[in-house]
Amino acid sequence: MADLKLKTDVIPNHNLNDMLEAKQLTKKYNDATALDAVSFTVNKGDIFCLLGANGAGKTTTINLFLNFIQPTGGEALINGLSVTAHSLETKKLLSYIPENLILYPNLTGLENLEYFSGLAGKKYSKDECKKFLTEAGLQEEAHSRKASHYSKGMRQKVGIAIALAKNAAVLLLDEPTSGLDPKASNEFSELLTKLSALGVATLMATHDLFRAKETGTHIGIMKEGRLLELLTTSHVNHTDLEKLYLKHMN
Amino acid sequence: MIFTIAFKELKERLREGRFRVMAIVMIALLAVAVMISNNYYQWVNRQHTEARENARSVWVSQDAKNPHSAAHYGTYAFKPKYPLSLIDQGIDKYAGVSIYLEGHTRNEARYMAAQDQAAISRFGDLTPDFVLLFIIPLFIILTGFDAFTSERESGTLRLLKSQGVSSVTLAAGKWLGLFAAVLLIIVPVFILSIYFLSKAKDFGEFNAGVLALLFLFYLAYYAVFSNLTLIVSAWAKKSGISLVVLLAVWMVACLGMPKAASRFAESISPYPTQSQFMAAVAEDERNGLDGHDPFSTQAKKLEEETLKKYGVDSLHKLPFNWDGYLMQRGEEHTAEIFDKHYGQLKTIHENQANVYRLASVLSPYLPARFLSMALCRTDYTAHAHFSDAAEKYRLALMDNLNTHFAENSKYGDWAYKADKSFYAGIPDFSYEPKSYGDIIHANLGGIGVLLAWLAVSALLVVWSVRKMNIL
């Protein structure tokens, strides 16, 4: 991933520093509260890691930013725009990698990338697309193989390539490394750091405390729909973080 | 972007085994159906030409005989087989192909194809219209039922939406991809039909414009089914549910509603049975003028009036043969009776047609079915038009014979014979079917309903995908 080149001019030039903002974000399903008045901001270049057990509300938060579900209260803003009012505009700014990324099995990895970046309004040549795939860590010989033969890790890498090709100002990642081997996982973290240096704001849900501490600039600990703790990673060491996390979980 | 989506949909499908098998089966079914119909068409056409020439030559070469004997001898009118009946046979199978034209009575068309077939064939023939109207909608459903559900199930829908695609754009692309798959199947079939039709030797000339219009109607019908498929797929939680719901829609639209509508139509405005019809005609005839019975009250009355009109006191003194005159007046009287009863049949048909028009609001199959038959000239209206023309010819023929008899013979001279040349001089039956302009005009209601289905279902697609759950 050494020769990763991003066209920084494609990243929208924003005056606002807050790329992502959750304002009292609340989501209720009948009686159950999935998310309870969560507020945070992610600035340009920040990597904000949401930690928490399953059902803590991490995915709900991301789905709210994607406007896949409607908030019961509060709002989610991307670059100052409400995602409910500006559904399409805010999506132009973001890239999303779900936990288990599924591609079209009858299309090759390359075709999948071409399709998804075409939908984002980008026009790349085959060579440029192949470059993105290589940058994301997918071996050359897999590019033209049907995605039905891909492993989870390979699909995830195509997802990364899709995100790279979109050249977005915001990354929404829902446990993106959960299927990757340690090497790929590490490469992915390096990539995030690189993007962060270019000003990309990242919101990542993860179970991986170690990775969060290594890569993240900020950490939020969630439990039962509430954001219990907001930390700046440079201010805590790994042991303290783990203790704090376990304290909240118990 | 719509084309990007449509292209990807089509590409994906073409790589899918299920779709490939289905498409090949569809094309094979349609091709076989067109070829069977073409053979049948050629065969019927040959027979028709033969029989028509035969009937005419029997008529023109008959020996010298009394004109009224010739009226009983009779001749035949043959219903032409139209080129487009290759695509939609409509009611042709159940309507007769020839009408026996004789004195005193109006006969029904006889010799229907259905009579010659074994009972098993009543379950349906492999005809193009069967495949086009029943099977292709099923193909659309089987191809598109998981258009949204499978993407939601696998999660590609989330990725797709995160790229900033609007739901309506996505639906338009999906629709186009689905429709392209339909085109892939029916365009070759229509080209095949054009090939057969253009080299078919027929009675009416083959009109490519009408075939194109028929093609458009079918496309509108398929567009409606594509819309319905996308609507259900957008709402269904799972692919399986979508499939079951769509199959139910198909059964109701293509099987249930037509059956229910015909039952309802029959209960509201039932056709008389053949024997009821004949009995009613006979009842009217009994009270009327019989050309063969100069002693009936009606005949006596006419006799008095005629003698008075010509100022003579005996039938012998009339300037024409009273027998021939009476025969013609009797014929005219019978014609009026038949006209009245056939008119009632037409009213019943019109009442039933109204029921079908109403039912069209609930099933897109119905307007498509009737439009297709109408354009192929194989519907009831086309048959009735032919039957009326044959009756008109019969009356002119009888008038010709009776008038000749009346003017060329003396009262009581039943031995009079008209020679061969007189019979040969009577023009043959020639039939001009209803013009396409008139057919389209008569079917504007059906066209309107089909277009309304198209518009409403399209709006529902837009509404459904906007409301669609992404997760």
Low-confidence stretches of chain A: 1-15
The biggest sheet of chain B, with number of strands, parallel, antiparallel or mixed sense and barrel status, is:
2 strands, antiparallel
Structural class of chain B: mainly alpha
- Overall average residue pLDDT of chain A: 88
What do we call the CATH homologous superfamily of the domain at 16-100 and 168-249 in chain A?
Answer: P-loop containing nucleotide triphosphate hydrolases
Annotate the secondary structure layout.
The complex is a heterodimer of chains A (250) and B (471).
Chain A: E1 18-29, E2 32-43, E3 47-51, H1 58-65, E4 73-78, E5 81-82, H2 87-93, E6 94-97, H3 109-119, H4 126-135, H5 152-166, E7 170-174, H6 182-197, E8 201-206, H7 209-215, E9 218-223, E10 226-232, H8 238-249
Parallel strand pairs in A: 3-8, 3-9, 6-7, 7-8
Antiparallel strand pairs in A: 1-2, 1-4, 4-5, 9-10
Helix pairs in contact in A: 3-4, 3-5, 4-5
Chain B: H1 2-14, H2 17-60, H3 67-73, E1 75-78, E2 98-101, H4 128-144, H5 149-154, H6 156-162, H7 167-199, H8 208-235, H9 239-268, H10 274-286, H11 297-310, H12 322-359, H13 365-375, H14 380-408, H15 420-425, H16 436-442, H17 444-467
Antiparallel strand pairs in B: 1-2
Could you describe the 3D structure shown?
The complex is a heterodimer of chains A (250) and B (471). With 250 residues, chain A is of the alpha/beta class. Chain A has a domain at 16-100 and 168-249: Rossmann fold (3-Layer(aba) Sandwich). Chain A is 34% helix and 26% strand. Chain A contains eight helices and ten strands. Chain A has helices at residues 58-65, 87-93, 109-119, 126-135, 152-166, 182-197, 209-215, 238-249; strands at residues 18-29, 32-43, 47-51, 73-78, 81-82, 94-97, 170-174, 201-206, 218-223, 226-232. In chain A, strands 6-7-8-3-9-10 form a six-stranded mixed β-sheet, with helices on both faces. In chain A, a hairpin with a 2-residue loop joins strand 9 and strand 10. In chain A, helix 3 packs across helix 4 (126-135) and helix 4 (126-135) packs across helix 5. Chain A is globular. Chain B is an all-alpha fold. Chain B has one domain. In chain B, 69% of the residues lie in helices and 2% in strands. Chain B has helices spanning 2-14, 17-60, 67-73, 128-144, 149-154, 156-162, 167-199, 208-235, 239-268, 274-286, 297-310, 322-359, 365-375, 380-408, 420-425, 436-442, 444-467, and strands spanning 75-78, 98-101. Chain B has a two-stranded antiparallel sheet with strand order 1-2. In chain B, helix 4 (128-144) packs antiparallel against helix 9 and helix 7 (167-199) packs antiparallel against helix 8. Chain B is elongated and about 105 Å long. The two termini of chain B are 23 Å apart. The A-B interface holds A 63, 66, 68-69, 88, 91-92, 94-96, 98, 100-104, 106-107, 111, 115-121, 159, 162, 166, 172 and B 1, 4-5, 8, 11-12, 15-16, 154-156, 158-166, 470-471.
